[in-house]
């Protein structure tokens, strides 16, 4: 809703086709011109008969009273959302059998879906063979094919169609080509990472399809220029209900004529190239921080001393601490920051968090040490009025991240009237020195 409020033009988003027919959600979605999307999980259908045998190695399924070839499961399977027009509602390659009691324990998870390879007859299917994964420790052995366990008399089951997305993307492209604005979250979901997730191809394909007559035949006229406007959403307290959020719009990206031409020629290189342009645009309006795992740092420091933890000597010699107590090549005249912490302060924090009688920090204590060190360094940097934040890196722990950020905001914003742009620039200053930041999400719209 915040994104819709901030957009200067009406924006349409995808919604499950099923939701368009619900009493309250449906009219509300239609009011914002939402585009219905047929989802496979909404089209699950109950099948006739029972499955009596499954050979996971040979990939053979035997049914009793089943109609794998002739049963028309549901009218909604006819054509809608499919890449081909020969779909008539019966089972075919790529569909999945599910909801059957044909395994127990860990094997049940492996057999959650049986992917159809070939429909042989009304009572026989061929599926993809199902193997157990090899042991995680790489010791060899184990693995092998899953063994189905079906009760006498067989088990009922359901089927889920393999829906192609081209029809759905074509509807979105027609909306854009007809002068509409379409919003899409190209990462495919929300997350608490400090950088972009790999983008899905949908946003690039919609952009390219909007320029191609073959995909927008029903549109009044093709647009002369299709633009993608990157939008970054940054939550200041991502783990809280009704958190404040910064919404930033970046410079629009046009679909290059050469990529549109490649797409028209069915050149598969067009979509990845367009997706890369969109990714670069999104990075300009989002926080992207390279965060290393603290466990790796902990292991390296512990190995140096040959002990099962990190002692004071190793902690103080760590580069993450050295940049706080002794920045390299700093002089008062040089354009570099001064030290923000003293050796004594680091030692005091170390002794504060270590267990009584222990000379080293175990992982949990080391993580706490890093968190406290980071918060103290931010405070000292503010007192010195230097643009510095520590490169103390932690895992993606929402509570810890928010605690550090809250400290930074109190230090920098008490009594200071910052504009939204200045506030976001301050956030990016922390990000540039590798502080794990708030939950991030991205969106873009195409117009």
Question: Any overview of this molecule?
Answer:
This protein is α+β, with helices and mostly antiparallel strands and 447 residues long. The chain has helices at residues 2-6, 25-31, 106-110, 166-177, 202-209, 257-264, 270-283, 294-305, 312-317, 319-325, 343-353, 363-384, 398-413, 420-432; strands at residues 14-16, 35-37, 45-46, 50-55, 60-64, 96-98, 114-121, 124-127, 158-160, 182-184, 227-235, 245-249, 253-254, 310-311, 360-361, 440-446. Strands 3-9-6-7-8-5-4 form a seven-stranded antiparallel sheet, with no helix packed on it. Strands 10, 11, 12, 13 and 16 form a five-stranded antiparallel sheet that branches. α4 (166-177) crosses α5 (202-209). The chain is extended and about 80 Å long. The chain starts with a helix and ends with a strand. The relative contact order is 0.11. Mean pLDDT is 75; it is low at 78-86, 389-408, 412-416 and 428-447.
């Amino acid at each position: 809703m915040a994104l819709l409020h901030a957009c200067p033009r009406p924006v349409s988003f995808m919604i499950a086709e099923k939701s368009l027919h619900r009493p309250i959600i449906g009219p509300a979605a239609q009011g914002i011109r939402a585009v219905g999307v047929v989802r496979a999980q909404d089209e699950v259908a109950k099948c006739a008969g029972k499955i009596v045998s499954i050979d996971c190695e040979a990939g053979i399924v035997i049914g009793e009273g089943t109609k794998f070839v002739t049963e028309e499961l549901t009218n909604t399977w006819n054509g809608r959302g499919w890449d081909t027009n020969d779909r008539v509602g019966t089972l075919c390659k790529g569909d999945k059998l599910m909801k059957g009691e044909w395994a127990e324990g860990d094997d049940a998870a492996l057999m959650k879906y049986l992917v159809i390879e070939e429909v042989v007859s009304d009572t026989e299917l061929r599926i993809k063979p199902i193997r157990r994964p090899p042991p995680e420790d790489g010791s060899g052995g184990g693995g092998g094919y899953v063994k189905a366990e079906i009760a006498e008399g067989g088990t009922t089951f359901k089927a889920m169609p393999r829906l192609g997305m081209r029809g759905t993307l074509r509807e979105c492209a027609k909306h854009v080509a007809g002068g509409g604005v379409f919003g899409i979250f190209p990462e495919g979901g929300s997350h608490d990472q400090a950088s972009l997730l790999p983008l899905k191809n949908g946003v690039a394909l919609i952009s390219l399809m909007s320029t191609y007559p073959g995909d927008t035949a029903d549109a009044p006229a093709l647009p002369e220029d299709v633009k993608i406007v990157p939008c970054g959403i940054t939550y200041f307290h991502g783990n809280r209900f009704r958190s404040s959020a910064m919404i930033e719009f970046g410079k629009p990206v046009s679909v290059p004529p050469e990529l549109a031409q490649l797409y028209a020629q069915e050149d598969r290189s067009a979509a990845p190239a367009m997706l890369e342009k969109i990714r670069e645009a999104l990075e300009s309006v989002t926080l992207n921080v390279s965060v290393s795992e603290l466990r790796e740092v902990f292991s390296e420091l512990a190995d140096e001393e040959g002990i099962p933890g990190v002692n004071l000597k190793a902690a103080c010699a760590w580069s993450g601490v050295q940049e706080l107590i002794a920045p390299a090549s700093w002089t008062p005249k040089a354009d570099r920051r001064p030290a923000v912490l003293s050796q004594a302060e680091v030692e005091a924090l170390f002794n504060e968090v270590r267990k009584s009688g222990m000379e080293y920090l175990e992982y949990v204590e080391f993580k706490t040490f890093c968190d406290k060190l980071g918060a103290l360094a931010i405070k000292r940097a503010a007192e010195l009025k230097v643009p510095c934040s520590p490169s103390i890196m932690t895992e993606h722990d929402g509570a810890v991240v928010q605690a550090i950020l809250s400290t930074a905001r109190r230090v920098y914003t008490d009594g200071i009237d910052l504009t939204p742009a200045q506030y976001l620039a301050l956030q990016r200053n922390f990000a540039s020195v590798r502080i794990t930041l708030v939950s991030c999400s991205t969106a873009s719209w195409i117009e």
